[in-house]
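Render this sequence as a predicted structure.
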Amino acid sequence: MIKQKFSVGIVSMLKKQFIFLIISIGLISIACNNSVDFGSEEAGSDSISVPLPSTETISQNNLSRDLSILNTQQVATGVNVVGKGMADANPDIAIINFSVVSIKDTASESRNTAAKALQNIIDELIAKDIPKENITTNYFRIGPEKEWNDKKRKMELIGFKTTNSVKVKIYELDKVGEIIDVIIINSDELIDFESITFDLEDKTSIIKSAREIAVKNAMEKAQEIASTANIKLGNPKYINEISSPNDFESVSDMPMMAMARAESFIETPIMSGDISVSVQVQMHFDINDN
């Protein structure tokens, strides 16, 4: 009797194991069509995603992930540093941005008023030896101008606004203040100054200098790390410019100029600053085991 019960128990257990095996095979088949992530959210940046074999083409996301893992593994076998470089130079060009703004009852009247004021400015700039090709339009806009009426509790049309934004390039930097005064005096008080920007027309040389400084900085950092860790630095494995050269222009904002009056004029003092360009490079060095 005991032997019979024991046999029944074994059969029951085998049935359960067989069912569990069938379920497991089904789950594995489903998982094979996806990638399995080893690790959890708690693992953070240390978790690794491993793609499982699939008949489907590997997606771009999986490929990028795999390359990232490979890069991490490469970096772990050497010295990885980021070098920064910055170079300065004196500007050789000034760019003035301003707008002529007119608000009148009709669109035609608004446009004509703005056009007359701007033409006066252009004529005087040319008389000051500013080439016509150095005076260009940024944008032109004309449209209804509205304001809020508290009594009627609604927006009301008060006229039409014309805005003609202009850019002027100046190569004689000592004349910038004089040119600003010419613009304001001949604007019929319709001027809205936006900014003055000092820049370099050709940044090739200053970018090259910044890049050289960045590479030297990276090499010095790598050597310092190797010396501190008491290891021998090998040859650079790769070098990558991780940021495009960023130039920092010298900018002066002048919203107060819109209210300047010709009859109380004192020549506008303008001082240009230096132009700075920054570059960052990433370098990876082998560790020399010899």
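Summary. The two ends are 77 Å apart (CA to CA). The CA atoms of residues 109 and 179 lie 28 Å apart.
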